[in-house]
Amino acid sequence: MPTIPHLLLAATGLALATLASALPAQGSPPAPDEAARGKAVFRRHCAACHGRGPGDDGSPHLPGTAALAARYQGSLPGALEERADLDTETILYFVRHGSGPMPMFRKTEVSDADVGAIAAYLATSAASRQK
């Protein structure tokens, strides 16, 4: 009979395998339909804070974009759509844990596959801006 640690290990392995199958492979270009879906998910859940500005209050950036721009002081763009350094695992961490005023999102709000699609969109968006 399996022990609880063995069951937890098996469940963790299954969860990681499921996540890996839902995310695009690193180094491979994202599928156009995945990037398009990611753009829709980004607009629905992320753009209100992390999109390109201006904000409703007349500020040049939206709150998340402004906070990241202040944090990076020009070394990285504040707008996530201009960042080429964000991989799926990084985005997934911040989506699940939040950061400062950014709330965490449950899998029922933003699925792991949605996060993979967001990563595909951001990679495509950043690449198109670098041309």
Number of continuous helical runs: 6
Number of domains: 1
Q: What does the main sheet amount to?
A: none
* Number of extended strands: 0
The SS-based structural class is mainly alpha
Q: Radius of gyration from the CA trace?
A: 17 Å
What form results from the Cα inertia axes?
A: globular
Q: Assign a percent range to the helix content.
A: 55-70%
- Average pLDDT number: 81
- Beta fraction of the residues? under 5%
Question: Would you identify the CATH architecture?
Answer: Orthogonal Bundle
**Could you state the order of secondary-structure elements as H and E?**
HHHHHH
Parts with pLDDT < 50 across at least 5 consecutive residues: 5-25
CATH level 4 superfamily: Cytochrome c-like domain
Q: Please write the CATH class name.
A: Mainly Alpha
- What is the straight-line distance between the termini? 58 Å
The name CATH uses for the topology is Cytochrome Bc1 Complex, Chain D, domain 2
